[in-house]
Amino acid sequence: MGRSIVELAETSRTHGERGGVQAEPSVSSALEHLVAGSQGVITKRIDLALLEGQHLLARSIARGALLGGSMLLAAAAWCASAGAGVLFILPDSSPVIRLSAFAVLNAAGAAGFAALAIRRHRPQPRSRANGAGSATAA
Questions:
Q1: CA distances from 44 to 37, 38, 39, 49, 58 (A)
Q2: Half-sphere exposure of 28 (CA within 13 A, CB side)
Q3: How confident is the model at residue 136 (pLDDT cuts 50, 70, 90)?
């Protein structure tokens, strides 16, 4: 009688059928199967999360490179068009006047973009309902 319950359950499981009746799986083997299945599911989810993270990182790097290249080309196009405009408007001027006009043109463009950015991101005033049910600015 020195055998434990787990050893007896394992012995009955390994012997298969007894007298035409299929042996019941033991509680410990059921727990082992549950743990093994859970570990498999967790491992697959971690692998899937890592794969999705790598895909997201690769896509983000590719988009960043394309955006950086497009910004560089846009800056080059702006400089070329501003230079062409200055040369067209002031064809016989000295280089100092042409460079000054080029600087003023670029400063005006920068100020316009800054004004657009400030106007776009200005917080909207909050409104609250007063006692009569109409909204008033806070």
A1: 11, 10, 9, 9, 21
A2: 10
A3: low
